[in-house]
């Protein structure tokens, strides 16, 4: 029982294999962003449709991650990792051979089912491996490895898309995923005693319907409109299902996702901040590639190079931020980083047809510098307040909320961009027809329409960035309430061993 209350010696071999697996998953995500315009052209889909490659990925994560607390408690690291990497590899192969959008989307969603298990698993192993006073530095090293993927991804993606078919992005990842799967098979040897806990299938259904309907409703608004009965019907269904899911968890002896973690104020605050930041973060990841390639005509490789300095800044800052967090806490870092994020996101809402490439690079780098000071410190500060037995539920809750907020943010901002593009295009076309002298030729009309469409899209992107800056401002206000966390006292620790076990089983905590 002593091992349940004290940190064990870090298992560096297991951590290394898990981090390589997570790195591949992160790399795959960043590879795809630059390729979205190319996929839109070849598969003949709109921005509101292609964003499902991102939203669908998050949707599956949002549905599956709530089950990971149960999975981590019941199964060994080895078994979970092998299942996760197998699913990720199968999805990668399927996406690589896709010639129609539904097959590509299916491959992405199978990939997501593997990633959904992998990330909470890695976070839980790190939490139990390092004491609170060393977690900032440990999470910083983890962040350095994870941020290397966004640093490499866009540039590598740009080069591949410019010289090969976008499917090479998946063909490139496939052999690496297979190697990581084999490494896990031979190197991970941990075993877990049989744990007699069962998953509540009604909770799984409520969670899946709740998160799935909510995300689908938000994501469909871009094509169907907010006034569509299908859109608000799905959102209402999702909200009702989630409320029912939360109420059920409070009554279960062994909740699938333990909402008692929100009794700890710093965890609740950190979850709120990271959700809001995630919603704003995806504005840049999706809309900058669309702007530079579709509107400005910049090549995929140059678009990837544009994102490189910002990703490198995040990678370099991650271990530094981890050490600063151990020394100064989360509030100073979060408020400073969010102030930079708000200002730079607002400046992105002023894009023009002539915004210089250098200006875009510098602005994105400063924005990423700000983000590097927020995500890991805020999340770590919240998790630090939880008693050890809540770690699986805390990491599962964080990852669930991050995926849900990221998907909602993506859907919301793409919807804003799409709807405002239509509005601006109509207004510009009406103004152009009023000011036209005589009847323009067919060629002149086509050229004018193309220019107006590009200008309408540009203004739609600016509007979406403006909304994103407002979202980031909410996170900035919340960050002023952050306090340094220490592990909360756990009443269960005061009980004798046999009573403690009985009480945990009875209370589901």
Account of the 3D structure:
By secondary structure, the protein is an all-alpha fold. It has two domains: 455 residues, Growth Hormone, Chain: A; 51 residues. The chain contains 18 helices and no strands. Helix 1 packs parallel to helix 5 and helix 7 runs antiparallel to helix 15. GO terms for molecular function: transmembrane transporter activity. This is DHA2 family efflux MFS transporter permease subunit. Pfam families: MFS_1. Belongs to the major facilitator superfamily. EmrB family. Its main location: membrane.
What's the layout of helices and strands?
Layout: H1 12-43, H2 47-50, H3 52-64, H4 68-74, H5 77-96, H6 101-129, H7 132-163, H8 168-187, H9 201-224, H10 229-251, H11 265-295, H12 300-328, H13 330-348, H14 357-372, H15 375-384, H16 391-435, H17 442-479, H18 497-507
Helix pairs in contact: 1-5, 1-6, 1-7, 1-8, 1-11, 3-6, 3-9, 3-16, 4-6, 4-16, 5-6, 5-8, 6-16, 7-12, 7-15, 9-10, 9-16, 11-15, 11-16, 11-17, 12-13, 12-14, 13-14, 13-15, 13-17, 16-17
